[in-house]
Amino acid sequence: MSDFLTTTEVAAAASVVRNYTNKQPTIGLILGSGLSSLADAVSEPDIIHSNDIPHWPVSTVAGHQGRLIIGTLEGKTVFVLQGRSHFYEGLAINRITLPVRVMHALGVRTLIVTNAAGGINAQYAPGDLMLIKDHINFLGMAGNNPLRGPNDDSVGARFPDMTEPYDSGLRHLAHQIAAENGFSLQEGVYAYVAGPSYETPAELRFLRMVGADAVGMSTVPSVVVARHAGIRILGVSTITNMAVPDPAPGTKLTHDEVLETGMRVIPKLTALLHGMVRQL
Ligand code: HPA
User: Fold this and answer.
1) How far is residue 271 from each of residues 16, 115, 240, 246, measured CA to CA in Å?
2) Which of 105, 108, 111, 236 matches a 20 to 30 Å C-alpha distance to 248?
3) pTM of the predicted model, to two decimals?
4) What is the pLDDT along the chain (280 residues), one digit of tens a residue?
5) Domain extents for the chain?
6) Could you tell me which residues are beta bridge partners of residue 30?
7) What CATH class is the domain 7-279?
8) How many angstroms separate the alpha carbon of residue 118 from the centre of ligand 1?
């Protein structure tokens, strides 16, 4: 298996997905750590296990289910990924973006991505939702961009523009929906790091200095590949913990804490996602 995902591999995966469904999704949703239950609201679902799709990167992380659900939500046909795979699981960066390429092949043109992130901005608190307005792709800048390798010109340009990676119109709509539901959203810059170890105090001081508001280990490869294909994006981070260089003595960060806070915000996130899908 090469590091690079080929057009043939994407077509083979998309073709198997089409064998399971005759629905034509236009909206994609990627549900991050602990958020899988958001998919329960999808009606008339065609459920596909990722193991049944060739070349599909299989997730091994607790809280990530590895299913794909195509069905109806708020009257729209949606393609929901319950669980995703991450660079730290060992796959080439290119390969973890196959699901987004398949979504695009099936007709998805708007993508809502959720994740769990550590809050760097001191104004944030665990349980906040942050709209991603921009990102810092540390892996990409250091040579691990998912678009590295042969370019498929039929999908997008060799050098895709990234001046507005996260659609301002979708962010505006998200703020409106949150206000209608009685809560507010933070908006900030998401720093993408490889993980799986959490950040050291010095790394967190560095991230704060370069303008990051939150830090996490996902989302950005999908966003780069989606923008390349012209898909517009709303990114929502659940701030599951504060990622600060000077925590209270004895404080340790665990994946369980990340999952627990994730559970706590499900009602807010559900209201936001339903409202978005309804109004798209
Ligand atoms: N750092 C990196 N990734 C994360 C964090 C964090 O503090 N919390 C949730 N995902």
Assistant:
1) 32, 16, 18, 34
2) 236
3) 0.93
4) 667 888 999 999 999 999 999 999 999 999 876 677 778 889 999 999 888 898 888 766 655 567 899 999 999 999 999 888 899 988 899 999 999 999 999 999 999 999 999 999 999 999 999 999 999 999 999 999 999 999 999 999 999 999 999 999 999 999 999 999 999 999 999 999 999 999 999 999 999 999 999 999 999 999 999 999 999 999 999 999 999 888 777 777 778 777 777 788 889 999 999 999 999 9
5) 7-279
6) 81, 113
7) alpha beta
8) 4
